[in-house]
Amino acid sequence: MAETIDTQELGEKIVKVLKTIYDPEIPVDIYELGLIYDVFVNEDYDVKILMTLTTPNCPVAETLPQEVEEKVKSLNKVNDVELELTFDPPWSQDLMSEEAKLELGML
């Protein structure tokens, strides 16, 4: 019987990695900031991440998605990473977690 890893377990590891990546202008990780819209993991351990930026003209528009892709690819078992950048819906502060809002003094 081949070794199997639960795709949900891998998804949780991916989220942990995403929580180590910070927007340089806001002292909150990109996951809690609400920049990650979705993470998909298929049976072949291919990962697709749907994310946005705070604005289309964000100063890290070229480097942040690349950092996300590289860090997720570095995880054991991840076969391939496809990152899709979207601005629909546009990011707003409503997408931030309660933890992020608390960290930024918005609660």
- Could you say which structural class the secondary elements and strand pairing correspond to? alpha+beta
CATH superfamily: Fe-S cluster assembly (FSCA)
Instruction: Report the end-to-end length measured between terminal Cα atoms.
Output: 51 Å
What gyration radius follows from the Cα positions, in whole Å?
14 Å
Give, in order, the helices and strands: HEEHEH
Number of helices: 3
Numbering strands along the chain, what is their spatial order in the largest sheet?
1-2-3
The gross shape turns out to be globular
The mean pLDDT is 91
Query: Spans of 5+ residues with little confidence (pLDDT < 50)?
Result: none
